[in-house]
Write a structure and sequence with these properties.
The complex is a heterodimer of chains A (about 260) and B (about 350). In chain A, about 80% of the residues lie in helices and about 0% in strands. By secondary structure, chain A is mainly α. Chain A folds into two domains: about 1-45, no CATH class; about 45-260, Orthogonal Bundle (MetI-like fold), CATH 1.10.3720. In chain A, helix 2 packs across helix 12 and helix 9 runs antiparallel to helix 12 (about 230-260). Chain A is globular, with a radius of gyration of 22 Å. Residues about 255-260 of chain A have low confidence and may be disordered. Helix content of chain B is about 25%, strand content about 35%. Chain B is built from eight helices and 20 strands. In chain B, strands 6-7-8-3-9-10 form a six-stranded mixed β-sheet, with helices on both faces. The longest helix of chain B has 18 residues, at about 165-185. Chain B starts with a strand and ends in a 6-residue tail after the last strand. The chains are: A mainly alpha (about 260), B alpha+beta (about 350). The interface of A and B includes residues 161 and 162 of A.
């Protein structure tokens, strides 16, 4: 079948609009001028070397990665049983809980960040790393619950019952039969949550403290003062990093179940 | 000998809306009992109560006299087969069948032997390494059956196991299921809405309606002597009309309907002359003739069905459906005919509050 010309034109416009900014960014990170300009002149790896040598970025990157892994892991550990309870059982207040789990997606990030800040100053005066961890977990939890619920709903409860009838207690049936079949859902939830945490600005903005801050916040701070290709280089590195993480998750989660099953 | 008993069970999913109320039934040892009925009649709930997935509000589940009501489902040792197979999608055929044995910590060597034996029984040797997704519907149902049987279940529970298969496969699986159940001597409860399936498989049938037993008995009994209009309707007595008992003689009744006479034998012979009745007749119990005694009518249409021909005949008693077990169409639309019924196959029910 031939694709109509008008459709092709629209498609290329959309692609240009979506990818254009990234391409410009990518290109600029190799330019030799001291400020962001387009088209950039020359070719250099100077900005990459500079970024990798800056303490403020390297430290913040480490914080961001650790935070993303920890909060995603915790949100998954809580999210899987929560999703299971929501999908499989009927109990009073279920509708309210479902609504509650969507609220952080609906509530603007700045409002959530401010609410968390008030909570941590007024009620629980935890150290900054713990604040960030708990704040991000709260942010990610609804995502993991949603994604895993969706894949649980596609899983026939009869399969689990069959396992129970064959002598498996509920929790064994869950671990050996349900969980392996939620692989795709867990993977999707992991990627979504990890990236959400890694990119988050509003929560981190309120909860960061002296010495402990995340990469997006550090980037914003830097951009307030400087406007050079450093940020472009850093962004290029971040895109590559994110792609690598997704690949890694897919490889490990995909591979382990093939070998284990 | 009585094996399983449900004793005055009341159960439901929502408070104040019981599906079964004060429901009792028994299954004999080695028997294959069918729970037959339209959807929503409570047959699946009955099965799930036996399996232990729903807890009765009242009443008891007894197996060989032992109270099983509170035994959790994973400790009951009942084999379950579902309509949609419910195989473990991430495990091979071998691991699917072996699952119940692994849960029982059976030694490896014995697992291998018993799985092989179970797969031989359902004729699936050589497919051990396949995943469920790589099997046909019929093969999947065989795996499900092998998986349920390999644990040597105390009771085999089948929930519409054949209704996802195509007609040809279904007939084959039916005979096979029966053979395996016989061979193993396992007591089984079979839930279905398909009356033909229940007739072909069961030692005994319980026909359910709205959470109650409507009729219980051997397949022949339910097929030929429905106890209520509901059973008659469900069992395919599609022709129905009102009549009045005119005379009762030795085992035979003369009914009059619309000025015509119909003879009926047995069933409700204690009805006194003059009582109003509902007459129910299967299409295959009616015959068309070109003359003589009977209900006069006119052929409206005919439909060739392969091994039989179905006629729609308009009479004073309404439209009657007649099925002739012939491969040729003998009567054409517009033709005047006479409909006669075999008196042995005419079923009569008293009509309440009707004097004729």
């Amino acid at each position: 079948m031939r694709v109509p010309r008008s459709a092709l034109a629209v498609l290329s416009l959309v692609l240009l609009f979506l990818l254009g900014p990234f391409l410009i960014l990518f290109w600029s990170s190799f330019g030799t001028q001291a400020s962001l300009a387009f088209p950039p002149k020359g070719f250099t790896l100077y900005w990459f070397r500079k970024v990798l040598g800056m303490r403020m970025f390297v430290d913040a990157f480490r914080v961001s990665v650790l935070l993303a892994f920890a909060s995603t892991g915790a949100a998954l550990l809580l999210g899987v049983p929560a999703a299971y309870a929501l999908v499989r059982f009927a109990f009073p207040g279920k509708g309210f809980l479902e609504l509650l789990f969507t609220s952080p997606i609906v509530v603007p990030g700045l409002v959530l960040g401010f609410a968390l800040l008030s909570f941590f100053t007024a009620v629980a005066r935890y150290p900054v790393p713990l604040r960030l961890f708990l704040g991000h977990m709260v942010l990610l939890f609804p995502y993991t619950v949603r994604v895993i619920s969706a894949s649980l709903r596609n899983f026939d409860p009869a399969v689990e019952e069959a396992a129970v009838s064959l002598g498996a207690p509920r929790w064994v049936a869950f671990l050996r039969i349900v969980l392996p079949n939620l692989r795709a859902g867990v993977m999707a939830a992991f990627i979504l949550a990890f990236i959400t945490s890694f990119n988050n600005v509003p929560i981190s903005l309120f909860l960061s403290g002296p010495g402990v801050t995340t990469l997006p916040i550090q980037m914003l701070t830097y951009m307030e003062y400087y406007y050079d290709p450093t940020i472009a280089a850093l962004s290029t590195l971040l895109i590559l990093f994110t792609v690598a993480i997704i690949q890694l998750v897919e490889k490990t989660l995909g591979l382990s179940t093939t070998l284990g099953g | 000998m009585e094996y399983l008993r449900l004793d005055h069970i009341t159960v439901g999913y929502r408070k104040g809306e019981p599906v079964l109320t004060d429901f009792s039934m028994a299954v004999g040892e080695g028997e294959l009992l069918s729970l037959l009925g339209p959807s929503g009649c409570g047959k699946t709930t009955t099965l799930r109560t036996v399996a232990g997935f729903v807890l009765p509000w009242k009443g008891k589940v007894l197996l060989q006299g032992r109270d099983y009501t509170r035994v959790p489902p994973h400790r009951r040792g009942f084999g379950l087969v579902y309509q949609n197979y419910a195989l473990f999608p991430h495990l091979t055929v071998f691991e699917n069948v072996a699952f119940g044995l692994r849960m029982r910590r059976v030694p490896r060597e014995e697992i291998r032997e018993r799985v092989a034996e179970a797969l031989r029984m359902v004729k699936l040797e050589g497919l051990e390494k396949r995943l469920p997704g790589q099997l046909s519907g019929g093969q999947r149902q065989r795996v499900a059956l092998a998986r349920a049987l390999v644990i040597r279940p105390k009771l085999l529970l089948l929930d519409e196991p054949l209704s996802n298969l195509d007609a040809k496969l279904r007939a084959g699986m039916r005979t096979e299921l029966k053979r395996i159940q016989r061979e193993l001597g396992v007591t089984a409860i079979y839930v279905t809405h398909d009356q033909a399936e229940a007739m072909a498989l069961s030692d005994r049938v319980i026909l359910m309606r709205e959470g109650r037993i409507e009729q219980e008995g051997a397949p022949e009994e339910i097929y030929f002597r429905p106890a209520t209009p509901f059973v008659a309707d469900f069992m395919g007595f599609t022709n129905r009309f009102s009549a009045r008992v005119e005379a009762v003689t030795e085992g035979m009744m003369v009914l009059s309907a619309g000025g015509m006479r119909i003879r009926a034998s047995r069933a409700g012979t204690d009805l006194p002359p003059g009582s109003g009745v509902t007459v129910a007749i299967r299409p295959s119990s009616l015959r068309l003739y070109r003359g003589g005694e009977g209900i006069p009518g006119e052929v409206v249409s005919h439909a060739f069905q392969g091994e039989s021909v179905q006629y729609l005949v308009s009479t004073e008693l309404g439209e009657l459906i007649v099925v002739h077990p012939e491969t040729t169409v003998e009567f054409s639309p517009g033709e005047a005919v006479v409909v006669r019924a075999d008196p042995e196959e005419v079923v009569v029910f008293p009509r309440k509050g009707d004097e004729g």
